[in-house]
Amino acid sequence: MELLPLLLACSLLLTVAAPARDITDACASQINDFQHLNSSGLHLTLHHPLSPCSPAPLQSDLPLSAVLTHDDARVAHLASRLAGEAVSSRPTSLHKKIKAAGIADSLAATVPLTPGVSIGVGNYVTRLSLGTPATSYAMVVDTGSSLTWLQCSPCVVSCHRQAGPIFNPRASSTYAAVPCSASQCGELQAATLNPSACSRSNVCVYQASYGDSSFSVGYLSKDTVSFGSGSFPNFYYGCGQDNEGLFGRSAGLIGLARNKLSLLNQLAPSLGNSFAYCLPTSSSSGYLTIGSYNPGQYSFTPMASSSMDGSLYFLSLAGMSVAGSPLAVSSSEYSSLPTIIDSGTVISRLPTSVYTALSKAVAAAMSGTPSAPAFSILDTCFQGQASQLRVPAVNMAFAGGASLKLATRNVLIDVNDSTTCLAFAPTDSTAIIGNTQQQTFSVVYDVAQSKIGFATGGCS
Ligand SMILES: *[C@@H]1O[C@H](CO)[C@@H](O)[C@H](O)[C@H]1NC(C)=O
Ligand SMILES: *[C@@H]1O[C@H](CO)[C@@H](O)[C@H](O)[C@H]1NC(C)=O
């Protein structure tokens, strides 16, 4: 990830007028984001959260240290969710707000909210259209959560600042609020890990909370969702009346986790039960496809099943090598923790013993390069920039023969203009294949056949 050059470029833009047009020109082809439906599924453009071409870019001066702090919060909440712990996330104030706003006066104030995954700042962005006539919204894509929601007027309590107008249900002829008796209302508990509630007018109220202090609360609704020429009636989603937190300037979130209410599951009858993406760097664009895909190019690994959380995507890491040599750990260490693959975690987390062996092997292979002090959660750092250094090949092998042959940009992350660090960190709870390692690979989640595939050259 070329975070720092991008941040510098963006801060320059604030002071120099002329280059702004250059960036705009560079993004012009992406501004009308590609949306195409054909027999091989639905094809959408995907943007890096810090890309200047994103329809909802994060604040461009966000330091990498802040990105990594949010990343740690996301990882901690994924881990606590898997451990079945309820970590409090301002539940009391959230309940008070909901009641004060009259959104749901039947809400049981004694039930604590279970936070979901911290949205953090690592999630990628695409566009979705909603309603009749259809209007388009910039949405964060999250494989770690299930319910899709977006900010809805009249924003009874609060809407964050978003790019473009806020969805107005009254302007859509196909909009309907979902009653409390609907089966979809009963499915909210599994989708959001929070109980649903019922409004005075008998409309089902959802509460999606994301671990840090981010949350969205509002009415469960249905309307026609569309992407280019493809439209799908009766899509269930949250119409957010109180939306607070780290959502950038996006309108809301698309949930791609494995749950009845996720976008994937709702579109699966029309498109097929799989999705694929290529996560771009901050200076390129990638894609998200939903539906059938060409299996030929991929190497596959089975999705592992877990009783801990059926909505996350588990797989089995089987081995790692540096410059062709396997790491000096016994093979059982790789499976010593459950492992998930996640689009929103920036830095991969490995079992501590595996991480230590990786760090040593990379440092040994780069012994000619002067080392540098640790940076935030990254402790294996070197003087220089990744693109200028000789970096050993790092390979991640998965059960069944799938592998990620990491390029330099997937191994090292430049933390400032004189330092680059190994983009992995140790963990004792849940191992995670994060997005720095996935960048520019094609990754397919074939839920129908319970397997995950990797292929190179994804974003090109
Ligand atoms: C469907 O569209 C995508 C994106 O334009 C394209 O890459 C793919 O080849 C198309 N598939 C078929 C079967 O036409
Ligand atoms: C870059 O980060 C390293 C590692 O934390 C630090 O030692 C160094 O002082 C930083 N350099 C600059 C120019 O900020």
Automatic annotation (TrEMBL):
Residues annotated as domain Peptidase A1: 124-455
Positions of the catalytic residues: 142, 342
GO molecular function, one term: aspartic-type endopeptidase activity
Keywords of this entry: Aspartyl protease, Hydrolase, Protease, Signal
Entry protein name: Peptidase A1 domain-containing protein
InterPro entries tied to this protein: Aspartic_peptidase_A1, Aspartic_peptidase_AS, PEPTIDASE_A1, Peptidase_aspartic_dom_sf, TAXi_C, TAXi_N
Family: Belongs to the peptidase A1 family.
Signal sequence interval, chain numbering: 1-20
BP-aspect Gene Ontology terms: proteolysis
Domain of life: Eukaryota
